[in-house]
Amino acid sequence: MVPNPDRFPNGINGVADQIHALGLKLDKWAQVISRSDAGTNTCAGYPGSLGYEEIDAATFNEWGIDYLKYGLLVSKDGVGHLTDLSKLSSDQLAIIKNTELLAFNQDPIIGTAAVPFKATSSAPTTSPPEYYSGASSKGTHVFIINISASVATKTFSFSNVPGLGTSGNWKIHDMWTGTDLPGTYAVNDTFSVSVAPHDTVAYLLIQA
């Protein structure tokens, strides 16, 4: 992937340098400048980044891009929800209509976003983060993302979850299935779950 010499005679780096000199950040709308649609091609007809994600990300970084608009406008899977909503699958509708996740997002009392946290004292730092926590009027929530291409066991310590405090026992409620997991956990306990590739889990921790 190289800059178009007619459009960018000084390269993308030259554009980035000029914008940064003004004290501004450079946002790259990839469908216009180059490929970076998550599919096989962009809406403008340029090749997409599917299969070239790592090398393209490195290229954008070398160009001095501060923010990337990464589209998915031509994928046949429809998960961008830009297609006819009447044609969404039942699985997609279940995600969009999940009342528990919507309640966290629109909580009228606390209404703060989930933030990354260190899952255990010895856990490595990942980029992007894989563990998030946030509070709502229902309690404390833990969200876990498996960013890898294989099944992974994810573990967090209750003592590391922001806002839980230093005492008490907790039950785990699965926000995807709407069911409570068996057992109770103390603040000094850990919890492990097997997460499918690119999948997520969403828990509400309820004081027992």
Structure write-up:
This protein is of the alpha+beta class and 208 residues long. It contains 5 helices and 11 strands, in the order αβααβααβββββββββ. It has helices at residues 11-21, 30-33, 53-63, 90-96, 99-105, and strands at residues 27-29, 67-69, 115-116, 131-136, 139-145, 152-157, 169-174, 179-180, 185-186, 190-195, 200-207. The strands form 3 sheets. Strands 3, 4, 5, 7, 8, 9 and 11 form a 7-stranded antiparallel beta sheet that branches. The mean pLDDT is 86.
Evaluate the radius of gyration: 21 Å
End-to-end Cα distance, whole Å, is 55 Å
Low-confidence stretches: none
What is the number of beta strands? Answer: 11
Give the overall average pLDDT.
86
Share in β-strands: 15-25%
In DSSP terms, counting alpha (H) and pi (I) runs of 4 or more, how many helices? 5
- The ordered H/E elements are HEHHEHHEEEEEEEEE
Helix content bin: 10-25%
Instruction: Tell me the structural class.
Output: alpha+beta
Query: Could you describe the largest sheet, including whether it forms a barrel?
Result: 7 strands, antiparallel
**What sort of overall outline do the alpha carbons produce when their principal axes are compared?**
elongated
Organism: Sphagnurus paluster
Family: Belongs to the glycosyl hydrolase 27 family.
GO biological process, one term: carbohydrate metabolic process
Keywords: Glycosidase, Hydrolase, Signal
